[in-house]
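Incident review: delayed structure delivery

Summary: a single-chain prediction request sat in the queue longer than the usual turnaround. Root cause was a stuck worker, restarted by the on-call engineer. No data loss occurred. The affected request and its eventual output are reproduced below so the record is complete for anyone auditing the incident later.

Affected input:
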Amino acid sequence: MSKNIIFPTFNHQGCALRRICSFVRRDGRVTKKQRQALDTLWAVMGVDYQVKFLDFNILFSRTARVTLEIGFGMGESLVVMAQAESEQDFLGVEVYLAGIGACLASAREVNLSNIRVICHDAVEVLEHMIPDNSLARVQLFFPDPWQKARHNKRRIVQVPFVKLVAQKLSKHGVFHMATDWQPYAEHMVMVMSKTDSFRNLSSSGDYILRPGSRPLTKFERRGQRLGHTIWDLIFEKKS
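Output delivered after worker restart:
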């Protein structure tokens, strides 16, 4: 299966070359169940990276609204959302094999046909595989906050990235972000305020309560028990 996944070129620290990357590869241990899912389900739900725009109607064998989730982790929320919104299609982008294997296994357990996954750098996927004005929703839940000041430049939410997301969203499409790191939440609001492509759906101009469409994950429930606050942000693309 691994030969079917095209990875970006990495330096000795595990970061993708050609740009300041927002992630470091830490593949860790892939369980037997995850490996089996990778080997048997990639041909069904996996999408190889290529420098060619996808045709979502062909990819999902139907016409439907498409949500792109960037960095879906173990795929818990992605699978729950796809199950709850079966009339929509979901494309997930992740670079960690264990997470992709877990997501594929979970999707198969509940017989989902509206999920596809890509193993590659999300920025390159947006640039080269996602047609302009084609997405109903882009989700970015709990990205690496890069907490040290000298690493803030690695945060994926930056002005060029936001402009790219706007380019790929359809009219009135939404960009939904969530983080448990307040400085990153503040950074997100600041970056989003620098583009005129979006309007903040928060009545207070910053954050909203978690919408029912975003499921609670194990990670988030654990954080709640520890007293952590979660910040949700939803921005709509202007017409």
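Verification: Helices lie at 32-45, 56-59, 76-84, 97-109, 122-129, 159-168, 182-192, 218-225.
Action items: add queue-age alerting; document worker restart procedure.
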